[in-house]
TrEMBL record:
Belongs to the universal ribosomal protein uL18 family. This is Large ribosomal subunit protein uL18. It comes from the Bacteria. This is one of the proteins that bind and probably mediate the attachment of the 5S RNA into the large ribosomal subunit, where it forms part of the central protuberance. One of its GO terms (molecular function) is 5S rRNA binding. Pfam families: Ribosomal_L18p. Part of the 50S ribosomal subunit; part of the 5S rRNA/L5/L18/L25 subcomplex. Contacts the 5S and 23S rRNAs. GO terms for biological process: translation. Keywords: Ribonucleoprotein, Ribosomal protein, RNA-binding, rRNA-binding. GO terms for cellular component: cytosolic large ribosomal subunit.
Length: 112
């Protein structure tokens, strides 16, 4: 827990550059854009969201679905005029589903 607190001190999202928080459970991957200056969630999405459910069905493995979700997430963020973000991996190692989501978000046009 103290490791997570130390990391959170360094990764701060603003209105111009919100924080992209990733949470992964055994089945799903959740992502949110957060403005920490006024604690507010700007956008959130997970595998079963109405926007993403059709696109995510194309992936056969969890890693493939995470990459597709990253692309869909980036498209939705572009609609909110958000292109630059700060990536918060939420204490997870940067590999597997978390890395695939980040790669998909970069391919979708997010800059971090």
């Amino acid at each position: 827990m103290s490791r997570k607190i130390r990391r959170k001190k360094k990764v701060i999202g603003t209105a111009e550059r919100p924080r992209l928080v990733v949470y992964r459970s055994n089945k799903y991957l959740h992502a949110q854009l957060v403005d920490d200056t006024q604690p507010k969630v700007l956008m959130g999405m997970f595998d079963k969201s109405k926007v993403a459910v059709e696109a995510v069905k194309e992936g056969k493995t969890k890693v493939e679905r995470s990459k597709i979700l990253g692309k869909v997430f980036a498209e939705q963020a572009k609609k909110l005029n958000i292109s630059k973000i700060v990536f918060d991996r939420n204490g997870y190692h940067y590999h597997g589903r978390v890395k695939a989501f980040a790669d998909g978000a970069r391919e979708g046009g997010l800059d971090f």
